[in-house]
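Sequence in, structure out. Go.
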Amino acid sequence: MPTPLAGPELGAFLRAHRELLKPADVGLVATARRRTPGLRREEVASLSGVGLAWYTWLEQGRVTASRQVLEAVARALRLDPAAQRHALRLAGFHEPVGPSEDGPTARLADAVQPVLDSWPTSPAVLVDRSFDLLSWNAAWSALWGSPDSVPADRRNLLWLMAADPRLHSVLHDWQPLAMNVFQYFRAQAGLSLGAPRTGEVYRRLDEDAPELRHWWGCHSVAELTARTITVEPAGPGPIRLSLSSFRPVDDPSALVLLFTPVTAEDRAGMDELTKDQSSGRTHSAKVYASSRCG
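Output:
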C-alpha cells in the first residue's frame, strides 16, 4: 500500500505546534536573532532525523510520510498522545497499536468503573484492544456470570461469545452477535491480529470450541452494529436489551459495550436479576450449541 501523501491540514497542524515550542522546551539555547515564534524548521528537522527540505515539504503537504517518520516528528514537537493520534489520522494512519502497559490499563479501568456502575440495570463491560475484559458492572455479572469466575487467560470477549456456556444459555440466537464481535475485532485490530495475546486467545478457542475454528479463520470484517437482543435468564423471564458501544476518550483503542433495557418492564426484569445476584440467589442455566460462520 502506498504511503499517504501529507495534506495541508497536517502541515498546518505541525506548523502550529512548532510555533508553540520554545527552544528551551527541547534543550536548545535561544538566540537574540530569532524573528519567528517557536522552533525553526531546521531545528525540528534535526531533532526528527530528517532533512530540512523534506520537513519543509511536509509542512507544505508536498511529500509522502511514513508512520515511523511522523512519530519521530511528533516526538520532536513534544506532541501528547491525543495530538500524536490526530497527526497520524490526518496523514491517513490509524492510531498507534502498541502493547498495553499494566499501569495505563489499570488507570483506565479505575476511571471507567464508576461509569459502568452508574448503570445498575444495564450490563456493561470495558475491554481493551485485545478484547480482554478490564472492568464490568454488577448487572453484567448478574446476567452473564462474573468474569472473575473465568480463568484470566480466557477472560476475553471473543472467548465468552464463542465458548462460554452461561452466555449461550441466556442469550437467544447468540450466533449473529458473536460473529459480529469477531468481525469487528478483525476490522479494528489492525496489527494486533498478529500480537501474542491474540494468538493466545485463538489457541484457547481452539481448545474450547474447536467446532467454531472457522470463525477465527474468517477474513470478513464489519462494524459492531447496534441491535436489540433477547435474553432469558431463569427467574425474571425474557428481557430485551439494546446494544450500544463507545470508546473512552482516555484510550480510543478500548471499548465499552452497554446493554440497555428497552422498556420499563425490561428494566424491572434486570433490576430483579441484579437484586437476586446481590442477595446470593442463583439460577441454573441450560447450554445451547452453535455452528456456523457468518
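Check: Confidence is low (pLDDT under 50) at residues 1-5, 96-102, 282-294. The chain has two domains: 8-90, 102-279.
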